[in-house]
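[recover] target loaded
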């Protein structure tokens, strides 16, 4: 019975964490959530999650994780430009915090930890689509994520801690964080256009990104719990297609019948020109993303319209 299986999520109040919690509850797992609410929002933690307001850098999590079977570690300082501005806090949260989570997993004999790396690890590559081997981090954010990889391998080597590492590309869907200083393009474009305001594009808009709908990321999360072939490996989770930010802008404008022009601002430091996932490894296990960009966008638009109508945005 999955109700007897306890699964913890760090970063449960965030975008991917809250969507994952909803999916795990639907699959009847007992879900424990940890978040310090620095970026995440308590209201978006699904009902049914046993929630702990705590910081991944705190020793409290060693107690909270007592009796947990599986752990998804998603909490992070994850805006590239914020990390560029504050490398010390980036190290504190993304390296110290992550090692504290691994340590808690070791102490509590957790069966497996599934944790978030990022497509940002490929910032310096010229190989597209990019396989998992092409690791060339440049920004402080991706350097901090690379450290997680070495520590996960160390905990596996010295303490037999099982892990799966996930390199998400640009994940989108309901509850994508729109409150941060520089919100992700999908939610920021949709919100601004629905409000009749001019969305902002940083740089020329010619950067290309591989976007993946959150439900398909969750399909892979479930495989990590159920399929041992995922253990000890790192997987790209993208769609295998990419679009320029200008192309995304015109697709969203068309879907919303909007003629509003974007405002172009100076480029953001540290970001890659292009991302495109080679997803052959994840596909070899039987996973593939099914929703087209347009279908996923329509779901995101309906979600944002609903939030706007409730006055939540
Ligand atoms: N969303 C994407 O497209 C994407 C792409 C690549 C990698 N990732 C990685 O996936 C993970 C989840 O991303 P997301 O988009 O859901 O981010 P998010 O910002 O929406 O969620 C992260 C959550 O972690 C929490 N958190 C931050 N610092 C914490 C701390 N010290 N202690 C406890 N909680 C803390 C925040 O409050 C937030 O709720 C992150 O590790 C991120 O780096 C995401």
């Amino acid at each position: 019975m999955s109700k007897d299986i306890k699964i913890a999520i760090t970063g449960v109040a965030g975008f991917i964490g809250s969507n994952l919690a909803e999916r795990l509850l639907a699959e009847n797992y007992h879900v424990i959530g940890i978040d310090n609410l620095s970026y995440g929002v308590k209201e978006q933690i699904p009902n049914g999650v046993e929630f702990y307001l705590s910081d991944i850098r705190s020793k409290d999590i060693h107690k909270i994780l007592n009796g947990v079977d599986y752990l998804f570690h998603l909490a992070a300082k994850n805006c590239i430009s914020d990390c560029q501005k504050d490398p010390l806090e980036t190290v504190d949260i993304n390296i110290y915090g992550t090692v504290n989570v691994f340590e808690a997993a070791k102490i509590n004999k957790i069966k497996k930890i599934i944790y978030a790396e990022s497509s940002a690890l490929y910032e310096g590559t010229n190989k597209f689509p990019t396989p998992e081997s092409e690791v060339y981090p440049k920004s402080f954010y991706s350097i901090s994520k690379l450290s997680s990889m070495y520590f996960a391998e160390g905990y596996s080597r010295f303490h037999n801690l099982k892990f799966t590492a996930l390199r998400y590309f640009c994940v989108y869907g309901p509850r994508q964080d729109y409150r941060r200083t520089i919100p992700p393009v999908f939610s920021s474009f949709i919100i601004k256009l629905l409000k009749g305001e001019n969305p902002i594009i940083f740089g020329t808009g010619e950067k290309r990104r591989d976007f993946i709908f959150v439900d398909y990321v969750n399909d892979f999360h479930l495989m990590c719990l159920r399929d041992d072939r995922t253990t000890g490996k790192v997987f790209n989770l993208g769609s295998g297609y990419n679009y320029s930010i200008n192309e995304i802008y015109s697709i969203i404008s068309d879907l919303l019948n909007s003629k509003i022009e974007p405002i172009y601002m100076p480029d953001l430091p540290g970001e890659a020109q292009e991302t495109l996932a080679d997803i052959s490894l994840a596909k070899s296990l039987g996973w593939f993303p099914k929703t087209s960009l347009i279908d996923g966008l329509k779901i995101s638009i309906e979600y944002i319209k609903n939030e706007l109508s409730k006055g939540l945005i």
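[recover] notes: The pocket of nicotinamide-adenine-dinucleotide is lined by residues 10-11, 13-17, 35-40, 55-57, 74-78, 93, 97, 116, 118-119, 168, 170-171, 177 (CB under 6 Å).
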